[in-house]
Amino acid sequence: MGLNGSGAVVVGGANGIGRAIAEAFAESGAIVAIIDRSEAVATTALAISAFGIKADVTDYSAMQAAVSSIKSAFEATPIVHVVYAAGMGSGKFGFPFWNLSPADWPRVLDVNLMGAVNTAHAFVPQLLEGKTGSIAFIASIAGQIGSQTDPPYSAAKAGIINFAMCAAKDLAPYGIRVNSVCPGMIQTDLNRSVFQAWNDRQPEDAKMTYEEWGASKVKTVAPLGRWQQPGEIAALCVYLASKHGINITGQTLNVDGGQVMHW
Ligand SMILES: NC(=O)c1ccc[n+]([C@@H]2O[C@H](COP(=O)([O-])OP(=O)(O)OC[C@H]3O[C@@H](n4cnc5c(N)ncnc54)[C@H](O)[C@@H]3O)[C@@H](O)[C@H]2O)c1
Protein backbone atom coordinates (compact mmCIF):
# COMPACT_ATOMS: atom_id res chain seq x y z
CA MET A 1 0.00 0.00 0.00
CA GLY A 2 3.03 2.30 0.22
CA LEU A 3 2.37 3.06 3.90
CA ASN A 4 5.41 1.30 5.30
CA GLY A 5 7.20 3.62 7.75
CA SER A 6 4.81 6.55 7.27
CA GLY A 7 3.38 8.35 10.31
CA ALA A 8 -0.37 7.96 10.90
CA VAL A 9 -2.55 9.33 13.70
CA VAL A 10 -6.03 8.08 14.59
CA VAL A 11 -8.06 10.44 16.76
CA GLY A 12 -10.66 8.48 18.72
CA GLY A 13 -8.53 5.37 18.22
CA ALA A 14 -8.95 3.73 21.65
CA ASN A 15 -12.20 1.88 20.91
CA GLY A 16 -14.60 0.73 18.22
CA ILE A 17 -14.05 1.79 14.61
CA GLY A 18 -11.09 4.05 15.46
CA ARG A 19 -9.27 1.17 17.12
CA ALA A 20 -9.79 -1.01 14.02
CA ILE A 21 -8.42 1.82 11.85
CA ALA A 22 -5.33 2.18 14.05
CA GLU A 23 -4.77 -1.60 13.87
CA ALA A 24 -5.12 -1.59 10.08
CA PHE A 25 -2.58 1.23 9.68
CA ALA A 26 -0.17 -0.62 11.98
CA GLU A 27 -0.65 -3.84 9.99
CA SER A 28 0.13 -1.87 6.81
CA GLY A 29 3.51 -0.93 8.29
CA ALA A 30 2.68 2.63 9.36
CA ILE A 31 4.05 4.17 12.56
CA VAL A 32 0.83 4.84 14.49
CA ALA A 33 -0.30 7.17 17.27
CA ILE A 34 -3.77 7.31 18.79
CA ILE A 35 -5.42 10.17 20.64
CA ASP A 36 -8.50 9.55 22.77
CA ARG A 37 -10.07 10.82 25.99
CA SER A 38 -10.81 7.25 27.15
CA GLU A 39 -8.64 5.47 29.73
CA ALA A 40 -8.50 2.62 27.18
CA VAL A 41 -6.05 4.66 25.10
CA ALA A 42 -3.08 3.22 27.02
CA THR A 43 -4.10 -0.45 26.70
CA THR A 44 -5.05 -0.10 23.03
CA ALA A 45 -1.77 1.65 22.26
CA LEU A 46 0.13 -1.14 24.01
CA ALA A 47 -1.82 -3.86 22.20
CA ILE A 48 -1.08 -2.51 18.73
CA SER A 49 2.40 -1.03 19.40
CA ALA A 50 1.19 2.53 18.86
CA PHE A 51 1.87 5.74 20.79
CA GLY A 52 -1.11 6.64 22.96
CA ILE A 53 -2.06 10.15 24.06
CA LYS A 54 -4.98 10.96 26.33
CA ALA A 55 -6.69 14.16 25.21
CA ASP A 56 -10.17 15.54 24.67
CA VAL A 57 -10.80 16.65 21.08
CA THR A 58 -12.86 19.62 22.24
CA ASP A 59 -9.76 21.13 23.90
CA TYR A 60 -7.79 22.76 21.08
CA SER A 61 -4.69 23.45 23.16
CA ALA A 62 -4.67 19.81 24.34
CA MET A 63 -4.83 18.74 20.68
CA GLN A 64 -1.92 21.04 19.80
CA ALA A 65 0.06 19.58 22.72
CA ALA A 66 -0.79 16.06 21.49
CA VAL A 67 0.65 16.92 18.06
CA SER A 68 3.90 18.08 19.71
CA SER A 69 4.12 14.88 21.76
CA ILE A 70 3.54 12.72 18.67
CA LYS A 71 6.20 14.65 16.72
CA SER A 72 8.71 13.90 19.50
CA ALA A 73 7.65 10.24 19.74
CA PHE A 74 7.83 9.74 15.96
CA GLU A 75 11.34 11.30 15.90
CA ALA A 76 12.36 11.54 12.22
CA THR A 77 9.07 10.11 10.90
CA PRO A 78 6.74 12.89 9.71
CA ILE A 79 3.00 12.78 10.42
CA VAL A 80 1.47 12.14 6.98
CA HIS A 81 -1.99 10.62 7.56
CA VAL A 82 -4.69 11.66 10.03
CA VAL A 83 -8.01 9.92 10.63
CA TYR A 84 -10.68 11.56 12.78
CA ALA A 85 -12.84 8.80 14.31
CA ALA A 86 -13.92 10.33 17.65
CA GLY A 87 -17.64 10.73 18.03
CA MET A 88 -20.64 10.56 20.35
CA GLY A 89 -24.42 10.71 20.22
CA SER A 90 -26.72 12.80 22.41
CA GLY A 91 -27.99 9.73 24.26
CA LYS A 92 -31.52 10.83 23.33
CA PHE A 93 -33.83 9.59 20.58
CA GLY A 94 -35.46 11.98 18.06
CA PHE A 95 -38.55 11.15 15.98
CA PRO A 96 -39.46 14.03 16.36
CA PHE A 97 -36.58 16.45 17.06
CA TRP A 98 -38.50 18.05 19.95
CA ASN A 99 -37.98 14.92 21.98
CA LEU A 100 -34.58 16.58 22.51
CA SER A 101 -34.04 20.07 23.86
CA PRO A 102 -31.68 22.73 22.43
CA ALA A 103 -29.50 22.04 25.49
CA ASP A 104 -28.80 18.55 24.06
CA TRP A 105 -27.03 20.05 21.02
CA PRO A 106 -23.82 21.89 22.05
CA ARG A 107 -21.80 18.93 23.40
CA VAL A 108 -22.71 16.76 20.37
CA LEU A 109 -21.68 19.54 17.95
CA ASP A 110 -18.56 20.20 20.00
CA VAL A 111 -17.26 16.61 19.94
CA ASN A 112 -18.36 15.54 16.47
CA LEU A 113 -17.87 18.73 14.46
CA MET A 114 -15.54 21.00 16.45
CA GLY A 115 -13.39 17.99 17.38
CA ALA A 116 -12.84 17.39 13.65
CA VAL A 117 -12.13 21.09 13.09
CA ASN A 118 -9.69 21.21 16.05
CA THR A 119 -7.95 18.12 14.67
CA ALA A 120 -7.57 19.64 11.20
CA HIS A 121 -6.19 22.91 12.62
CA ALA A 122 -3.81 21.13 14.99
CA PHE A 123 -2.34 18.83 12.32
CA VAL A 124 -2.33 21.03 9.23
CA PRO A 125 1.05 22.70 9.93
CA GLN A 126 2.65 19.21 10.03
CA LEU A 127 0.94 18.08 6.84
CA LEU A 128 1.88 21.28 5.01
CA GLU A 129 5.53 20.74 5.90
CA GLY A 130 5.51 17.35 4.16
CA LYS A 131 3.48 18.53 1.13
CA THR A 132 1.82 15.11 0.94
CA GLY A 133 -0.65 13.03 2.92
CA SER A 134 -4.29 12.58 3.74
CA ILE A 135 -7.05 13.29 6.21
CA ALA A 136 -10.10 11.05 6.56
CA PHE A 137 -13.05 12.12 8.67
CA ILE A 138 -15.34 9.36 9.87
CA ALA A 139 -18.73 10.99 9.32
CA SER A 140 -21.99 9.04 8.92
CA ILE A 141 -24.74 8.43 6.46
CA ALA A 142 -26.84 10.31 9.06
CA GLY A 143 -25.14 13.45 7.73
CA GLN A 144 -26.54 12.87 4.24
CA ILE A 145 -30.14 11.78 4.78
CA GLY A 146 -31.68 14.05 7.42
CA SER A 147 -31.72 11.13 9.86
CA GLN A 148 -34.26 11.85 12.63
CA THR A 149 -32.65 9.40 15.06
CA ASP A 150 -30.39 11.97 16.76
CA PRO A 151 -30.75 15.40 15.08
CA PRO A 152 -27.67 17.14 16.57
CA TYR A 153 -25.55 14.13 15.57
CA SER A 154 -26.93 14.20 12.00
CA ALA A 155 -26.28 17.95 11.75
CA ALA A 156 -22.73 17.59 13.06
CA LYS A 157 -21.96 14.85 10.54
CA ALA A 158 -23.38 17.00 7.71
CA GLY A 159 -21.03 19.74 8.91
CA ILE A 160 -18.04 17.40 8.79
CA ILE A 161 -18.87 16.34 5.22
CA ASN A 162 -19.04 19.97 4.13
CA PHE A 163 -15.84 20.96 5.96
CA ALA A 164 -14.03 17.98 4.40
CA MET A 165 -14.83 19.30 0.91
CA CYS A 166 -13.67 22.80 1.87
CA ALA A 167 -10.42 21.41 3.34
CA ALA A 168 -9.93 19.17 0.28
CA LYS A 169 -9.98 22.23 -1.99
CA ASP A 170 -7.64 24.23 0.28
CA LEU A 171 -5.14 21.39 0.66
CA ALA A 172 -5.13 20.03 -2.91
CA PRO A 173 -2.37 22.42 -4.08
CA TYR A 174 -0.16 20.93 -1.32
CA GLY A 175 -0.76 17.33 -2.40
CA ILE A 176 -2.92 16.58 0.66
CA ARG A 177 -6.23 14.76 0.17
CA VAL A 178 -9.29 14.98 2.42
CA ASN A 179 -12.28 12.63 2.37
CA SER A 180 -15.27 11.63 4.50
CA VAL A 181 -15.96 7.97 5.22
CA CYS A 182 -19.51 7.13 6.27
CA PRO A 183 -20.42 3.91 8.08
CA GLY A 184 -24.03 2.73 8.25
CA MET A 185 -24.53 0.47 11.30
CA ILE A 186 -21.69 -1.06 13.31
CA GLN A 187 -21.89 -2.76 16.69
CA THR A 188 -19.97 -0.39 18.98
CA ASP A 189 -20.62 1.45 22.26
CA LEU A 190 -21.95 4.40 20.26
CA ASN A 191 -24.43 2.25 18.33
CA ARG A 192 -25.52 0.52 21.54
CA SER A 193 -26.28 3.94 23.08
CA VAL A 194 -28.59 4.70 20.10
CA PHE A 195 -30.42 1.43 20.80
CA GLN A 196 -30.63 2.21 24.52
CA ALA A 197 -32.17 5.65 23.89
CA TRP A 198 -34.74 4.01 21.59
CA ASN A 199 -35.50 1.11 23.94
CA ASP A 200 -35.97 3.41 26.95
CA ARG A 201 -38.84 5.07 25.08
CA GLN A 202 -40.69 1.84 24.24
CA PRO A 203 -43.63 0.46 26.27
CA GLU A 204 -42.70 -2.69 28.24
CA ASP A 205 -44.22 -5.11 25.71
CA ALA A 206 -42.29 -3.55 22.78
CA LYS A 207 -38.84 -3.57 24.42
CA MET A 208 -36.16 -5.64 22.65
CA THR A 209 -32.64 -6.83 23.24
CA TYR A 210 -29.87 -5.03 21.37
CA GLU A 211 -29.45 -8.09 19.15
CA GLU A 212 -33.19 -8.25 18.27
CA TRP A 213 -33.33 -4.51 17.54
CA GLY A 214 -30.17 -4.62 15.40
CA ALA A 215 -31.25 -7.67 13.41
CA SER A 216 -34.63 -6.18 12.53
CA LYS A 217 -33.18 -2.71 11.80
CA VAL A 218 -30.40 -3.79 9.41
CA LYS A 219 -32.87 -5.93 7.49
CA THR A 220 -35.26 -2.98 7.19
CA VAL A 221 -32.83 -0.17 6.33
CA ALA A 222 -29.88 -1.76 4.51
CA PRO A 223 -30.41 -3.44 1.11
CA LEU A 224 -27.54 -5.84 1.85
CA GLY A 225 -29.23 -6.66 5.15
CA ARG A 226 -26.09 -7.00 7.26
CA TRP A 227 -24.16 -5.07 9.88
CA GLN A 228 -20.96 -3.39 8.74
CA GLN A 229 -17.74 -4.40 10.49
CA PRO A 230 -15.11 -2.00 11.92
CA GLY A 231 -12.47 -3.66 9.73
CA GLU A 232 -14.43 -2.71 6.59
CA ILE A 233 -14.22 0.98 7.50
CA ALA A 234 -10.55 0.56 8.40
CA ALA A 235 -9.78 -1.05 5.03
CA LEU A 236 -11.22 1.94 3.19
CA CYS A 237 -9.26 4.40 5.36
CA VAL A 238 -6.02 2.56 4.60
CA TYR A 239 -6.89 2.47 0.90
CA LEU A 240 -7.57 6.24 0.84
CA ALA A 241 -4.25 6.95 2.57
CA SER A 242 -2.34 4.58 0.31
CA LYS A 243 -0.89 5.09 -3.15
CA HIS A 244 -4.14 3.64 -4.54
CA GLY A 245 -6.10 6.63 -3.23
CA ILE A 246 -3.79 9.23 -4.76
CA ASN A 247 -6.51 10.66 -7.03
CA ILE A 248 -9.36 10.63 -4.50
CA THR A 249 -10.17 13.85 -2.66
CA GLY A 250 -13.24 15.76 -1.48
CA GLN A 251 -15.35 12.59 -1.65
CA THR A 252 -17.99 11.17 0.67
CA LEU A 253 -17.62 7.39 0.63
CA ASN A 254 -20.26 5.15 2.18
CA VAL A 255 -19.65 1.72 3.70
CA ASP A 256 -23.27 1.15 4.61
CA GLY A 257 -24.69 -1.93 2.88
CA GLY A 258 -26.53 0.43 0.53
CA GLN A 259 -28.50 2.14 3.31
CA VAL A 260 -28.04 5.67 2.00
CA MET A 261 -29.58 4.95 -1.42
CA HIS A 262 -32.43 2.99 0.14
CA TRP A 263 -33.55 5.83 2.43
N1 LIG B 1 -21.18 2.59 15.13
C1 LIG B 1 -21.90 3.03 14.13
O1 LIG B 1 -22.91 2.41 13.75
C2 LIG B 1 -21.48 4.29 13.41
C3 LIG B 1 -22.24 4.67 12.28
C4 LIG B 1 -21.88 5.82 11.59
C5 LIG B 1 -20.81 6.57 12.02
N2 LIG B 1 -20.10 6.20 13.12
C6 LIG B 1 -18.97 7.06 13.53
O2 LIG B 1 -17.81 6.29 13.68
C7 LIG B 1 -16.93 6.95 14.59
C8 LIG B 1 -16.46 5.95 15.65
O3 LIG B 1 -17.58 5.60 16.45
P1 LIG B 1 -17.75 4.15 17.12
O4 LIG B 1 -19.04 3.62 16.66
O5 LIG B 1 -16.50 3.37 16.96
O6 LIG B 1 -17.97 4.59 18.63
P2 LIG B 1 -17.15 4.24 19.97
O7 LIG B 1 -17.95 4.87 21.05
O8 LIG B 1 -16.84 2.80 20.05
O9 LIG B 1 -15.78 5.02 19.75
C9 LIG B 1 -15.70 6.43 19.78
C10 LIG B 1 -14.35 6.82 20.34
O10 LIG B 1 -14.30 8.27 20.37
C11 LIG B 1 -13.74 8.63 21.62
N3 LIG B 1 -14.20 9.97 22.00
C12 LIG B 1 -15.49 10.36 22.20
N4 LIG B 1 -15.51 11.65 22.58
C13 LIG B 1 -14.22 12.07 22.63
C14 LIG B 1 -13.60 13.29 22.98
N5 LIG B 1 -14.31 14.36 23.39
N6 LIG B 1 -12.24 13.38 22.92
C15 LIG B 1 -11.50 12.31 22.54
N7 LIG B 1 -12.03 11.12 22.22
C16 LIG B 1 -13.37 11.01 22.26
C17 LIG B 1 -14.27 7.58 22.60
O11 LIG B 1 -13.52 7.56 23.81
C18 LIG B 1 -14.13 6.31 21.77
O12 LIG B 1 -12.85 5.75 21.92
C19 LIG B 1 -17.72 8.11 15.18
O13 LIG B 1 -17.40 9.31 14.49
C20 LIG B 1 -19.15 7.74 14.87
O14 LIG B 1 -19.98 8.86 14.79
C21 LIG B 1 -20.43 5.08 13.82
So how many helices? 9
Just give the CATH class. Alpha Beta
SS-derived structural category: alpha/beta
Please count the beta strands (DSSP E, at least 2 residues each). Answer: 7
Small molecules bound in the structure, each named once: nicotinamide-adenine-dinucleotide
The helicity comes to 40-55%
* Radius of gyration, in angstroms, nearest whole number: 18 Å
CATH fold field value: Rossmann fold
Residue stretches low in confidence (pLDDT < 50, at least 5 long) are none
Q: How many structural domains can be distinguished in the coordinates?
A: 1
Largest beta sheet: strand ordering: 3-2-1-4-5-6-7
Shape estimate:
globular
Describe this structure in words.
The mean pLDDT is 97. This protein has one domain (7-262): NAD(P)-binding Rossmann-like Domain (Rossmann fold). Helix 4 runs parallel beside helix 5. It contains nine helices and seven strands, in the order βαβαβαβαβαβαααβα. The chain has a seven-stranded parallel beta sheet with strand order 3-2-1-4-5-6-7, sandwiched between helices. By secondary structure, it is α/β, with parallel strands linked by helices. 46% of the residues lie in helices and 15% in strands. Bound molecules: nicotinamide-adenine-dinucleotide. Nicotinamide-adenine-dinucleotide binds next to helix 1, helix 4 and helix 6.
Supply the key terms.
globular, 15% strand, binds nicotinamide-adenine-dinucleotide, seven-stranded parallel β-sheet, 263 residues, 7 strands
What are the SSEs and their pairings?
Blueprint: E1 7-11, H1 16-27, E2 31-36, H2 40-47, E3 51-54, H3 60-74, E4 79-84, H4 105-130, E5 133-138, H5 151-171, E6 176-183, H6 189-200, H7 210-221, H8 230-241, E7 252-255, H9 259-262
Parallel strand pairs: 1-2, 1-4, 2-3, 4-5, 5-6, 6-7
Helix pairs in contact: 1-8, 3-4, 4-5
The structure holds nicotinamide-adenine-dinucleotide.
